[in-house]
C-alpha cells in the first residue's frame, strides 16, 4: 500500500508493460503516466522546486513562472498547489486547450503568448515573456527547465536508479528527447554505474536535437526547434529518429490492446521495435523503454482520424485500417 500526504509525493509507480506479444520482441515499457500530473515531468517539477527552495531562491511570497506547452506545466501546477505556491504557466497557441484547462483547474494561471519571435519560434517568444516578467517583478522565480540541472538530476537520482534496481541485467534503454532531462539523467547514471548498458536516444523527425533537420512537428513532448542545452550526445550510444506518422501507427496498435499511451510513447516504442527487430536479438536481450505519459490528452489528436488526415494526409489512416 502506498500512502501519501501530498500529490507531489507519488513519483515512481513501478509499472512496466511487457510488450513481447505485441512486438514479437521483448521490451519492458516503463509507464510514467500513473501519478497526479500524469507524466514523467512530475520528477523534474518536484526536484526543480525543491532545489530552488533549498537555494533560498523560492519562498512563501514567490510566484513560480515557467514556459511549458504541456506536461511540465501540469506537473508544476500540481507541485505548486501541494506546496501552497502561486504558479504562472506561459504557453502558446499550440498548447492543447484541455491541458491549459487542466493547469487552471489546479489553481495556476495560464498566459498564452500569441506571437512567435522574428524567427517564427514560439519557444523563444515564451522565454522572452518569462524574462520580462522576472525583470519587472523580483517575486517571480523562473525554474528554466531547459537549463536547470535539477531537471536531469531528478532522473539520475530517481528514474534511472529505479530501472537499474529492477533490471540488474539490462542491455538496452530507449529514451525520448524533449529538453533532454530524462535522457541525460539516465545516460549519466548508467555511464557511471553500469557502462555496458546501451543508451539509445529517440527523437522525432523534424526536430533539431542531435543535429536533425528542422521540419513540421505536431506531437508535443518530443523534439525541439532549437538546440537543447542539457543534451550531450557523447553520452549516448545511438540516436533513432522516428517520423510522426509511424508514432501515430504505433499508438493505435498499442490502443488496440487497451494500452492508451501518448504520442511520445508511440515514438519511443516504434524506435525500439525497429532497433531490436533489425538486430534479431534473442529473448534473453533485456530492453526497457520509457513511456512518458498516457493517451487521454491525445484523444482529439493522434486518436482522432480527422486530425490525422489534416496533418499527415489519408495515407497513414489507410495503413491503420490494415492493422
Ligand atoms: C509527453 C512527453 N514526452 C517526452 C518528454 C520529454 O522529456 P524530457 O524533457 O525529459 O526530454 C516530455 C517532456 O515534456 C513529454 O511531455
Q: Please outline the major beta sheet.
A: 6 strands, mixed
What is the string of SSEs from the N terminus onward?
EHEHEHEHEHEHEHEEHHEHH
Give the strand line-up of the largest sheet: 1-2-10-7-8-9
CATH class of the largest domain: Alpha Beta
Number of strands: 10
pLDDT averaged over residues? 95
The low-pLDDT segments are: none
What is the correct CATH architecture of the largest domain? 3-Layer(aba) Sandwich
CATH topology name of the largest domain: Rossmann fold
Shape: globular
Helix content: 25-40%
Radius of gyration over alpha carbons? 19 Å
Please give the domain count. 2
In this entry the ligands are: pyridoxal-5'-phosphate
* Cα end-to-end separation: 39 Å
Portion in strands: 5-15%
Give your account of this protein's structure.
- This protein is α/β, with parallel strands linked by helices.
- The protein folds into 2 domains: 7-35 and 151-321, Rossmann fold (3-Layer(aba) Sandwich), CATH 3.40.50.1100; 42-142, 3-Layer(aba) Sandwich (Rossmann fold).
- It contains 11 helices and 10 strands.
- It has helices at residues 20-23, 42-54, 71-83, 97-105, 122-136, 149-166, 181-193, 244-255, 263-279, 305-312, 315-321, and strands spanning 15-18, 28-31, 63-67, 86-91, 109-112, 140-142, 172-176, 198-204, 238-242, 287-291.
- It has a 6-stranded mixed sheet. It has a 4-stranded parallel sheet with strand order 5-4-3-6, with helices on both faces.
- α2 packs across α6, α3 (71-83) packs parallel to α4 (97-105) and α8 packs parallel to α11 (315-321).
- The longest helix is centred in the middle third of the chain and has 18 residues, at 149-166.
- The protein is globular and about 55 Å long.
- The relative contact order is 0.14.
- Bound molecules: pyridoxal-5'-phosphate.
- Pyridoxal-5'-phosphate is lined by residues 39, 41, 70-72, 176-183, 221-222, 262, 264, 292-293.
Amino acid at each position: 500500500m502506498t500512502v501519501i500526504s501530498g500529490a507531489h509525493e507519488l513519483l515512481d509507480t513501478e509499472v512496466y508493460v511487457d510488450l513481447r506479444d505485441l512486438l514479437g520482441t521483448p521490451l519492458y515499457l516503463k509507464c510514467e503516466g500513473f501519478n497526479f500530473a500524469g507524466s514523467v515531468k512530475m520528477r523534474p517539477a518536484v526536484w526543480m522546486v525543491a532545489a530552488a527552495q533549498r537555494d533560498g531562491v523560492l519562498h512563501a511570497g514567490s510566484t513560480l513562472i515557467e514556459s511549458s506547452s504541456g506536461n511540465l506545466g501540469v506537473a508544476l501546477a500540481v507541485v505548486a498547489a501541494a506546496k501552497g505556491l502561486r504558479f504562472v504557466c506561459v504557453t502558446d497557441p499550440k498548447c492543447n486547450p484541455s491541458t491549459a484547462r487542466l493547469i487552471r483547474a489546479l489553481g495556476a494561471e495560464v498566459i498564452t503568448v500569441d506571437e512567435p519571435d522574428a524567427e517564427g519560434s514560439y519557444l523563444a517568444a515564451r522565454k522572452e515573456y518569462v524574462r520580462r516578467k522576472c525583470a519587472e517583478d523580483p517575486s517571480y522565480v523562473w525554474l528554466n527547465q531547459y537549463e536547470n540541472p535539477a531537471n536531469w538530476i531528478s532522473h539520475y537520482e530517481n528514474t534511472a536508479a529505479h530501472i537499474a534496481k529492477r533490471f540488474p541485467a539490462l542491455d538496452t534503454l530507449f529514451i525520448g528527447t524533449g529538453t533532454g532531462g530524462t535522457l541525460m539523467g539516465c545516460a549519466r547514471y548508467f555511464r557511471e554505474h553500469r557502462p555496458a548498458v546501451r543508451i539509445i536516444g529517440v527523437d522525432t523527425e523534424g526536430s533539431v536535437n542531435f543535429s536533425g533537420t528542422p521540419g513540421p512537428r505536431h506531437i508535443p513532448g518530443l523534439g525541439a526547434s532549437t538546440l537543447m542545452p542539457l543534451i550531450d550526445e557523447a553520452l549516448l550510444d545511438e540516436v533513432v529518429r522516428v517520423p510522426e506518422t509511424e508514432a501515430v501507427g504505433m499508438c493505435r496498435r498499442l490502443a488496440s490492446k487497451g494500452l492508451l499511451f501518448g504520442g511520445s510513447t508511440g515514438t519511443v516504442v516504434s524506435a525500439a521495435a525497429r532497433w531490436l527487430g533489425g538486430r534479431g536479438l534473442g529473448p534473453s536481450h533485456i530492453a526497457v523503454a520509457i513511456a512518458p505519459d498516457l493517451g487521454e490528452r491525445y484523444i482529439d489528436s493522434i486518436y482522432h482520424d480527422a486530425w490525422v488526415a489534416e496533418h499527415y494526409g489519408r495515407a497513414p489512416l489507410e495503413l491503420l485500417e490494415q492493422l
